[in-house]
Amino acid sequence: MDVNLLAARLLVVEDEARLAANLAQGLSEAGYTIVLAGSAEEARARLGAEHYDLLVLDLRLPGQDGLAFLRELRREGSVLPVLILTARDGTADRVTGLDSGADDYLVKPFAFSELLARLRALLRRRLAAGAPVVEVGELRLDTLSRRAWRGRRELGLSPKEAAVLEYLMRHAGVTVARDALGAAVWGESYDPCSNLVGVFINRLRQKIDQVREPSAIVTVRGAGYLLRVGARGDGDGGAT
Q1: How much of the chain exceeds pLDDT 70, in percent?
Q2: Regarding beta strands 224-227 and 217-220, do their DSSP bridges make them parallel or antiparallel, or are they unpaired?
């Protein structure tokens, strides 16, 4: 399996604006969903609000430095894979970074192809350890392979369709705002003026819903979308 096709969500913590923009562009083109944070404090807020598959972390950050932030994450029990991306190139720096909880360590300047290879290796390692599965009613989603089923029927989702479904499943029974969903799936590239979210919601409905049943995904007019907890389309007949 090519983990580069999994549309993994990466949180990139980098305060240098030009490098952050270049990383976001290159990683997005490689198939990843990228969210940027310019400080440890911003990264912590994003981690508390959304799910990520991997963290790319600079060490020289404004405010709390990257090592202190990483140590806190590990003390709190986080098992999120972390790749340190830094200009600190001494052997002692590498040892300290790895001992502080990093899964890999890459020194700037770096070859972008090597960064991609290291990310693939970390994601493969996570996949081999057992992919987390989310279940809501008849729906089941493997969040790493991005394969989804309704009952025994595989849905054949694209990576982005799977990402939209994952967000809805993790908020099942709760109305989620369209723009919050869009930002979570498309990151910095999301345009609130586009109809992108609506297009993907319709695609999911076509793949999930059964004939002559209300949709499992309800449109809550003026508010957003809601995945029925039963995911059987047997709810209250709200707008779809």
Answers
A1: 90
A2: antiparallel
Helix (H) or strand (E) holding 182: helix 178-186
Q: Which of 4, 78, 42, 104 is nearest to 12 (CA)?
A: 42
- Which CATH class, in words, describes the domain spanning 133-227? mainly alpha
Q: Name the one residue in this structure whose structure tokens are 């979210």.
A: 197
CATH number of 3-128: 3.40.50.2300
Q: What does DSSP say about strands 139-142 and 217-220: parallel, antiparallel, or unpaired?
A: unpaired
CB atoms closer than 10 angstroms to residue 18: 8
Start-end ranges of CATH 3.40.50.2300 in the chain? 3-128
The structure's pTM equals: 0.56
Instruction: Note the pLDDT tens digit of each residue in 85-120.
Output: 998 888 888 899 999 999 999 998 889 999 999 998
